[in-house]
Amino acid sequence: MAGGGGGGVSPLGQAPPMWYHRDLSRAAAEELLARAGRDGSFLVRDSESVTGAYALCVLFQKHVHTYRILPDDDGFLAVQTSQGVQPKRFKTLPELVLLYLQPNQGLVSTLLYPVDREESVPDERDYSDGEDEKPPLPPRFGSTSTPPGPLAEPHTDSAPAANGLSTISHEYLKGSYALDLEAVKQGASSLPHLNKTLVSSCKRLNGEVDKVLSGLEILSKVFDQQSAFMVSKMIQQSVNQGGDQELENLVTKLAILKDLLSSIEKKALKAVQDMSLSGLSSPPPLTRHSKTIPVQAFEVKLDVYLADLTKIGKSQKHSLSVDVEGGKLVVMKKMKDSQEDWNTFTHDKIRQLIKSQRVQNKLGIVFEKEKDKSQRKDFIFTGAKKREAFCQLLQLMKNKHSNQDEPDMISIFIGTWNMGSVPSPKLVGSWVLCRGLGKTLDEMTVTIPHDLYVFGTQENSVCDREWVDSLRAALKEHTELDYKPIAVQTLWNIKISVLVKPEHENRISHVGVSSVKTGIANTLGNKGAVGVSFMFNGTSFGFVNCHLTSGNEKISRRNQNYLDILRQLSLGDKQLSSFDISLRFTHLFWLGDLNYRLDMDIQEILNYINRKEFDPLLKVDQLNLEREKNKVFLRFAEEEISYPPTYRYERGSRDTYVWQKQKATGMRTNVPSWCDRILWKSYPETHMVCNSYGCTDDIVTSDHSPVFATFEVGVTSQFVSKKGLPKTSEQAYIEFESIEAIVKTASRTKFFIEFYSTCLEEFKKSYENDSQSSDNVNFLRVGWSNKQLTTLKPLLSEIEYLQDQHLLLTVKSLDGYESFGECVLALKSMIGSTAQQFHTYLSHRGEETGNIRGSMRVRVPAERMGTRERLYEWISVDKDETGGPKGRSTLPPRTGHDYVKPPLTRKHVGAELGKVSEEAERSGKEEGTTIRAKQDAAEVDPSACKNNSYNNPAYYILEGVPNQSAAALSSELLPSPCSPPAGKTASFGGGRGKPPPGPSQPRRHTPGQPVRAISEEGSSEEDGSAAAVGAAAQAGATLNRPPPDFPPPPLPKGALETADTSHPKPRPLYPDLAEVKIPAANPGPAFCLGEGFRRGGGGAGGLDDQSCSVLQMAKTLSESEYSPTPRAPSAPPHFRVQGLGSGDACRTFPPRAPITEVIAEDLPEEARWSSSSLSLSVGESSVGEWLLKLGLERYEEGLLHNGWDDLEFLSDITEEDLEEAGVLDPAHKRILLESLKEQAQQK
Fold it and tell me: What domain of life is recorded for the organism (predicted)?
């Protein structure tokens, strides 16, 4: 509860009034007031920006006005006023509110109708997975933490001793105190009963001091004879003395112990130095090395291309032997008659590994030959797991023999296990080695030590020291390394332990620990979370282990547990207190017993498990369903689950699920569920790959199975500039041209933006927004022009440093200085001489609150452009292949932030930067993992329009608000078919086509399907209507696809019938900010939804008319785009989308019109990004027109000069021919060749 008071008077008076809502969020407050719906409705909540302050929220004319109530130095409260206005001061909140209940007190409205808080009834039976009749007792240390360094031995008797002392003291005060008082009245000079009480209380302490002195006596005899005699004498006296002298004796012993401890180290040092001078040398310290990795051989076949058909008949079997320790790869070709031919390549001669996206067991290896020439060979492995093992070993070899002082990449093991209040077995090798069920590591790599091990446990009754010792012993047994504990944090029986390789111990800094209780009334620690955070060189990490509320039906309570933990866990950089922990770390991992269950009949669940069919179960998994609704884990990622539910097994076996238990209140059902999960969230354009995710099948002491996951994570070093601090002429700048945000709020205040980054000396603020508009009460569009935005100066100007940096933004209000949304941007894509577009979502307190987009650039001076390839950029995905893997997809799950950069190329200064760009362009998706580096929009499927919360009616309508009529809503929200916004054509924005599998990472991995964006309305299965949508969208794909989080609006009824479908009006790429307006209210028909838009994809029941109208409004709000200089394009024809269900007029949308880029040199990447649309326009009558369509007209003269003047002959052109014609850019060559190939296929 916030609030501070002065003079001992509570600012809330005798009891908190019902209109005081404690720490209610701003968004929730607005929703309650909207529900009330009457002018003058008000409530008071805690301020989000100032500790101890309050926020008075008043509803007037459908807008929420917020006033800050601040305490002064004397503890009096006053509403913040304009400068020069004398504030009125009050001792308590009720007194303050009482005044403003009177008219004409300076507020926008008199306070008329208090909005009362909803008192939640605490769940009194939230215990341990519903198994215990009462909550488990807390351990002797209710909440403990261990910072870096050796773990201290816990004093197991300290808690009982404290309790005993308290009891003895109470007994004295209740009884013996009166006797001592009477004795003093009669002239006594001592307090015998108090002395007896103190002796009893210190009895344990006396014994402990004797033990310590006995131990030190041995050291004293060796190093300090004089002290040894005194210690021996004191121990003897303690045995003989007692009674009144015992307390005095204890004080003397403590004094001797103090002197002994302070002097013995100095005396021991002197004695050892004396011995060393006498020739006695101490033995050398033992050094421990991890066991060497043996040479591993892989049986492969050489992939045969059509051009190599002449080789058919010859042996294509090869063996690839990886010598990690020796740093070489031996490629052996098996010949007839047992003969062999081999080539040896050292680690520096292996230029690149290229994974096939279509064939998951295929890998291309680029070898360096003589004279700087390279050769690529493609090999087929026996399975996808073998290919991944080979890549891991080669990466390990590269890293081991790298000339870099600091690593680019580390490997992390994460494990979570509910131990069921039973000590773990001695053998937990299957857990730390990731052996068992699901996605596991290959046996060739399973024993390679990870750099970090993170163990999260729940219901762990083992004391901290014993638990960590057992983990270290297990790791030492399997790795022969003595792992160092970084930190241990405990809340009751919830523990998290982090251990690191000895070689990395000095790379760890800024360690922090925290815990949050979410048990009964948020005061018991039987449920809650513990967390650890630290820096690994220049990369921040956060780890959260939680145990959430149990029970099949407690979904909302679990959701609230998550939000409480997200907001209250105090981890990471304190300067980032404006951001919740999901935005404070480069990489955040969230693990634990989340306790989400399966919503399905028990017999159906068991049948699916027996048949090992997990897809139907994952569709009814409560966590997946809540994530689809954006209720929890917004933009977190989780690897595909391919193992059976980990709860609730019969102890001692993994063959039987025990799903019923007789309780005093009746029979309780606990259906088998995936309670134990591991999720993560990473900053955009960082490297994160999940290599395994599964559970053990041989650890049976608990009713939960341990779960494991391993990750390959990119890290940055503490960058040190070789050129020193930049001079003025060498200073890099981060410049913004414009920013626009749509925020979900009923407020109409002004806003400013705060910028945070580790590359800035301190956070910076913008001026207030200079444009603001809204045609809907619940949303506000705000914009900042270049004049309102500050230029940021990074501490260092090297591109190698800046491309690893991120910028955190928070949009705050001027009235209450509270955040309305936060986001993170990667600087990597913004580096260049021309401005780059960005757009991403805003979130606050774990909820999506809007979108933000803009134009910015990071200018780096030419002399600071040198960079290098990262180790994780060494492996790429073959983008030239089309199609995708059949069957179960292993495409990456989404990363932490849906962050999309429009595909604008930039001029690269210097060959080094060009190399980086080329590497980034040829990099792509890692199969079975997350996308790794630069978010190249070339991978985005132009046939899809990403669904997100802005398509979700529940996002745009405040629950419980009195319904307006459907006609009224539609007239307010539908744009007029006669007067669309100037310079715009309406665009395709709906449907259930496949979402992009590329950088705009999907929100949840649906098993059995490629990883996809989560749609509130759509289904994970495609049908005919989806195919129609996809075809139409592909046909009308544009060179500049709209941002996924800004879906364009559908046209109103009849708009298509009157439109010229052959030659639509071109619209500017980005209208000027001044033109950006939410479409005005115009009469129009109600917008209807077919089955394709119903939540869950065909589930029972549809959305009501009001929700349908709000859905269209949501899309309309997000239509506009902007740019300083629009330019008209040439356009392919519109394609009409077939009906998506019942009511064709409601579901007929045109595709987005194509748009030509403003900057001609940026067009090629646009064209490459949307290559599917280019094939429609290749059939031009001349080479010039064809090049103009591709945006590569600069090469026309060179091609014509070399005789390529006819499109018919161009089909035979090769890369060498293009180079001779002046096409030297590899990306441009690829665009031209792909376009010609598609043209040939169409013929």
Answer: Eukaryota
The DSSP annotation for 863-910 comes to GG------GGGSEEEE-S--S--SSS--PPPP-S--EE------PPPS
Please give the pLDDT value at position 289. Answer: 52
Contact by Cβ (8 Å): 516, 507:
no
End-to-end CA distance of the chain: 72
pLDDT at 975: 37
Mean pLDDT, all residues of the chain: 73
Neighbours of 184 (CB within 10 A): 12
pLDDT digits (tens, 9 = 90+) for 1006-1064: 333 333 333 333 333 334 443 343 433 343 333 333 334 344 344 333 333 433 434 34
Higher pLDDT, 470 or 220: 470
Is residue 815 within 8 Å of residue 772, measured between CB atoms? no
80 DSSP assignment:
-
Angle formed at CA 1233 by CA 1228 and CA 1236, multiple of 5 degrees = 130
The three-class DSSP label of residue 331 is strand
Backbone phi and psi for residue 796, each to the nearest 5 degrees, phi listed first: -120, 155
Nearest one of 1113, 1115, 1119 to 1082, comparing CA atoms: 1113
Whole-angstrom distance, CA of residue 721 vs CA of residue 800? 10
Q: Which residue, among 751, 868, 750, has the nearest Cα to 809 in the 3D structure? A: 751
Size of the chain, expressed as the number of residues it contains: 1243
Residues with Cβ within 8 Å of 363's Cβ and at least 6 positions away in sequence, in order, are 353, 354, 355, 356, 378, 379, 381, 387, 390, 391
Mean pLDDT score, 361-388: 89
pTM of the model: 0.65
Half-sphere exposure of 197 (CA within 13 A, CB side): 20
Contact 584, 542 (CB under 8 A): yes
Q: Each residue of 566-583: pLDDT tens digit?
A: 999 999 998 898 899 999
Tokens of 715: 């890290």
Residue 931 has pLDDT above 60, yes or no: no
